[in-house]
Design goal:
By secondary structure, the protein is an all-alpha fold. Helices cover 67% and strands 0% of the residues. The chain has seven helices and no strands. The longest helix has 20 residues, at 3-22. The protein is elongated. The mean pLDDT is 87.
Amino acid sequence: MEKSKYDIMYKTANQIRSYRTSAGLSQKTLAAMAGLDPAFLGHVERCLKCPTIDTLNKISNALNITLSQLLDFDHPPKETKNVDLLKKITVLFNQLTPEEANHLTNIIFKIVEFKKH
């Protein structure tokens, strides 16, 4: 592989990893949010696979950033505290069995009720 292509892949992989970890997401969670296979995302982050623009767009949307932010190698990601939590929770919630989802919903309702009093 030519050096310039590898340099771009390396910088892109670092940006993805930085934004992902800054958002507190695992590879598995980010992959689910972006509609990607977790192994593929791992390969992208380790520079074993070269993502398409479409894939990078899916990743940036899942990270709640623009594609240009993802590819702005001169400005590393800032600490992001306002992650799209509802989207993250929805992805994780959908990975639960119906019984687990019902149990978690009951816990959330109890927490909300407790906070009201």
